[in-house]
Amino acid sequence: MGKLKMPGMFKGLGITLGILGTTIKDGANTVQYPHEKETPPIRARGVIALHEGNCTACMLCVRSCPDWCIYIEGHKQLAPPRRAGGKPRKVNHLDRFDIDYALCMYCGICVEVCPFDALFWTPEYEYSEPKIADLLHDKSKLGEWMETVPEAPELEVGAQKK
Amino acid sequence: MSMLAADIPYWGQSLLRVLGGLVAVLLPAGAIVYLFLFKMMSFMQSRLGPMEAGPYGSMQLLAEVGKWMQKEDLAPEAADHRIFKMAPLIVLLSTFLLVVVIPFGPDAFFTNFSVGIFYGLAVASVSVLGILIAGWASANKYSLLGGLRAAGQLIAYELPMVLATLGVVIQAGSMNLQDIVVSQNTGEIFGFGGLGNPFILTQFIGFLIFMIAVQAELTQAPFDMPIAESEIVSGYMTEYSGFRFLIFFIAEFATAGVFALIASVLFLGGWGVPFQWFGWDSINDVDNWMNVAGPLIMFTKMMLLTFIIMWVRFSSPRFREDQLQTFAWKILIPLALANTAITAILKVAF
Question: How far apart are CA B118 and CA A63, in angstroms?
Fold first, then answer.
């Protein structure tokens, strides 16, 4: 045998007994979740929120989603012209924007790919449901989460729109 | 005979013994699982463990049992159904047969058996059969590997265990567990009898070997090769679910408790206090209240020893299969043989 490391074993016994002592004396490192909650870091990636006004129903997020968990429906409608006397504009109107969080794997590709800053990460994480079908959240629910989105960081010098 | 023999009919005595046996097996198992497996392990990992079911999670055991009872009793299609279903019962049965010989007080015992420790060690190896047929009957290669590993390990560590016990038997001059308790509590250390002579002092090497062998017999880490989850899923328990898994689970911790009880009888003086304290000379002088105090003393010693077993379990990484076997055959068995020989020589010399 020869290489049986008994001293290391005794060291291990000391470590576990030491942690037992500190847990009794100072409490555990964990928190008792439903009773007390930890605040996640401000830019934690919890759930994905939708800023509805920015969305143009361009479908980029839908097409880039690896799980196909985003559902968008929209229609074209006429909007008043930008300048007086101009032609009325054709714009996309968003009818439905659903994310199925039972399928979502939180890769964040939709947030990256959105060219109009309509999707955001929020630190919100408590949105579990008793039924799996209830995890399909619509645009009003996704919009509520916009409140928890942290302020965008300052842009670097020279990165502003010209 | 039993203190209850005078006024209770035979069937009543039998019923009491069955109840006593259930308590002696299940109470230690429950205490070990809650105090050590749930709480001590959690605290050693800097967390609190179960806290929701009852105050400090004390009802968690009931919740766990309820959970297992309502699960489906599955058996693989290719399994050998009859013995597949029998295997956990055989393992638990050996625990119940084992507790029968342990004395808990001057009159509080199930049976006063003249070759008690011999019987105990023999019956303890019946559980190997249960484990082996569980592994074989599951029709699963992981189970079979686990069962074979368990059989190899339990047989290898049975030997040092028996040899370590031999030293105690030589010193006490009896295989009766009651006699072993009495000889420790009437013993003297160089004419000083205030402490008795618990055999942990004279048989310290034997005690170490016995506890290591117990650790291996119980397949607790670092000797948990037979149920190594990262390579063979859960060994012989892989295919078991629901109630039958629960029986394996109870058997594991009940056997830990019973082996700790046997170790405390063999090495720590059992139920007794040094007889000199109260001026008793032999077992016939022992007061009746020891029948109540005895089980409590035994329980305390059992908790102390299971604390050590569980502490080592939670702190150690797993031995490799070859390390495990070499440790038994090349270190423990020669050491135990030498210990037995030296004890015998000293016994004859003095």
Answer: 74
Chain B interface disruption, residue of A1, A22, A26, most B CBs within 10 A: A1
Total domains in chain A come to 1
Distance CA B334, CA B160 (A): 8
Closest CA to A16 of B208, B230, B317: B317
Contacts of A12 in chain B (CB under 8 A): 315-316
Structural domain boundaries of chain B? 65-349
Taking CB atoms and an 8 Å cutoff, what residues of chain A touch B323? 1, 4
pLDDT tens-place values along chain B, 350 residues long: 445 446 778 888 888 888 888 888 888 888 898 989 888 999 998 888 888 888 888 888 888 889 988 988 888 888 888 888 888 999 888 888 888 888 888 877 888 888 888 898 889 888 888 888 988 888 888 888 888 888 888 888 989 999 999 888 888 888 888 888 888 888 777 767 667 778 887 888 889 999 999 999 888 888 888 888 888 888 888 888 888 889 988 888 999 999 999 999 888 888 877 777 777 777 777 777 788 888 888 889 999 999 999 999 888 888 888 888 898 899 899 999 999 999 889 888 87
**What value, to the nearest 5°, has the Cα angle with vertex B191 and ends B190 and B197?**
70
Residues of B in contact with A9 (CB under 8 A): 222, 315-316
Domain span including residue A70: 47-148
Which residue of chain B is at minimal alpha-carbon distance from A6?
Answer: B316
Asked if B297 and B273 count as a contact pair (C-beta separation under 8 A), the reply is yes
Shortest distance between the Cα of B335 and any Cα of chain A, in A, equals 14
Contact B48 A30 (CB under 8 A): yes
Residue of chain A whose alpha carbon sits nearest to that of B41 = A20
CATH number at residue A84: 3.30.70.3270
Q: Which amino acid is at A153?
A: P
Cα–Cα distance for residue pair B331/A89, rounded to 1 Å: 89
Residue A26 distance to chain B (closest CA, Å) = 10
Contact between chains at B43 and A20 (C-beta distance less than 8 A):
yes
